[in-house]
Structure formats: structure tokens, C-alpha cells
């Protein structure tokens, strides 16, 4: 087996030196366990938080152990009556080629149907990121037809689904993304009404003006993935009784300060601001996965992936994700 371990903790920006590729034997299976050959590894921004030692909503990754992470793969050996060789499964296999999973534990492994949805999509649009989009949009923002919803990191795994789900509910969807190519995709492929390039509008004044033009009726819902200046500019255009789903603050994940310039706007506009962690909303997963799976299977919803090749490429691809080098869901192809 090959695994990638976290061998040191970064201060500020992480580097490939924080990771090490390690060879390890595959242990024999005990009763209840299955051996999964992982086909794709998901790279996600939360992994940056787990590289730190400090308190966060996720437990820190232990040093010199295999990096945790979502995977999809195929059962290649089974000592569990519920799983047969050949079953396609999604789980938390980690940064490794093979994982031994105690499938008798509830929720650690889920069988998936790849007839109409490609296996890799279960890590993105029809997986944790898609459900994140659904939970924040549907349960916190709850957009009404004609309302305007803004989402940052709009071409990414979560953001791309937020806008499409908002459009399906009759809302106006406005994205914020890095670069003309991503913005083009967000409007032309994903069907958002507008998209603002945060690289071309990199200061508050310019972003605020661009939002004013893209949101002539103000902003009723904000799905926040980035924080900092982008959040400040959105709050400036917020309507009374608007809602903010606080999903991520990626502009501060390397420890950069992300002050809020005008918190009084939350009061002035009588806003609802709610943070959430998707794994604490398990009751919504079935409805979310049903809508997302149906949408991807029928082509109603579009998704895009950036796929790094081979386990050894995972650290570099992960560093790229934190800098916006990914275009859509960042995956690593393992098999
Ligand atoms: P994405 O596919 O959106 O990739 C991350 C993107 O963030 C990059 O492509 C880049 O897009 C953007 N970005 C990175 N740094 C900056 C910056 N300094 N300023 C502006 N944009 C930046 O990742 P995900 O869809 O997986 O995650 C999106 C967000 O959702 C993250 O904040 C993540 O932590 C959060 N999340 C939260 C969950 C929860 O339960 N609360 C669950 C899953 C994700 P661009 O090039 O467009 O700038």
C-alpha cells in the first residue's frame, strides 16, 4: 500500500515538505472488515485546518499518520456479509491506495449506484460538497423566487451547486470567482445570472461597485465561502432581513487576519447570519442527495472536476486548491 502522512505542521502557507509518501503493508482483514481499492481521493479546504494543532471544529490530524480524506472506490476483499467484491463505495479512506474499513460500524461506508452518476461525482456534486451547498442554501438562506443569492468561490465544488440550486428555486444567482475563465463558465455553463471576477475587482470599492451592478435589487442571501473583503462588499449590498450561510472563510485558512469591516450592517439590516458544518446536518442528507443525484443523472445540474494523477500528486494539488488553481471539484485519481 502507499499512503501520504502528515509529517510536520505548517505555519502560514503549507508546503509539500509537510507531507511524506510512505509504503506500508496491507493488513489481513478481521471479521466485519472490507478492503477497499480507492479510485479517487477528494481534496477539501477543511484539510488545511486539520494540519494545525489548534482548536477547530475538526480534530487535528495526528502527525505521522495517513492524512484523512473522502474517497470512492471498489470493494476488493470482504469479511462483511453486507459487502461483496465489486461493490462501489464512498467513505473516508484517506490519502492512500487501499483502505481497510470496519464496515460493521454505522455510516463509515456507503454503497453507491454508478449506473447514472459517475463514481467520482459522489465526492463532489453528489457528495459532501453538494450536500453542503444544499444545507446552506435550502435550510439557512431559503431563497424565494425573484430574490438574489450571491455565492463566493462560485465555480468550485460547493459554490457551483449553490447557484444551480438557487436558480432551480427561481432565485437570481450571482457568483464571485477568480479569473475570467471561471466567471465565463459560471454564467455560460452553470447558468448563473452574473459572475464577478475578484481578481479584476480586488479592492473593496471596485467589488462593491461590481456587486451593485450585478445585484440591482440588492442581496437577499449570501453563501459565504471566502470571507474578508468579499464578505465586506456583500454585506454593503445586503437587503433588510437577508440571510448569510457562513460556510467557509478560505481567505483566512493560512492564518491571515480576516476582520469584518462593518458588523453593524448585520443589525441595521436585521440579518440572520448562521455558521454550519454539513456533517452535523445528517437529517438533510437524504433529501439533498436525492435532488443532487437526480440533477446530475439527468444533466439538469452541471459539475466540473480537476483531477490530479496518482497519489504522489496529492500534496501539490492540495496546495493548488488553497490558491484557486483548481477549476471545479479537486480530485486525485488513484486507480
Ligand atoms: P472549491 O472547489 O471552491 O476550491 C476553493 C476555492 O476557493 C478556490 O478554487 C478559489 O476559487 C477560492 N479561494 C481560495 N483562496 C481564496 C481567496 N483568498 N480569496 C477568494 N477566493 C479564494 O472548494 P470547496 O467547494 O470544497 O469549498 C468551498 C468553501 O466551502 C471553503 O471555504 C470550504 O472550507 C467550505 N466548506 C464548508 C463546509 C461546511 O460544512 N461548512 C463543507 C465543505 C466546504 P477562485 O479561483 O474562484 O478564487
Automatic annotation (TrEMBL):
UniProt GO molecular function: oxidoreductase activity, acting on the CH-CH group of donors, NAD or NADP as acceptor
Protein name as it appears in the record: NADP-dependent oxidoreductase
Keyword Zinc appears in the UniProt entry: no
Oxidoreductase is among the record's keywords: yes
Stretches assigned to the Enoyl reductase (ER) domain: 12-332
InterPro entries noted in UniProt: ADH-like_C (IPR013149), ADH_N_2 (IPR041694), ER (IPR020843), GroES-like_sf (IPR011032), MDR_fam (IPR045010), NAD(P)-bd_dom_sf (IPR036291)
Entry keywords, A to Z: Oxidoreductase
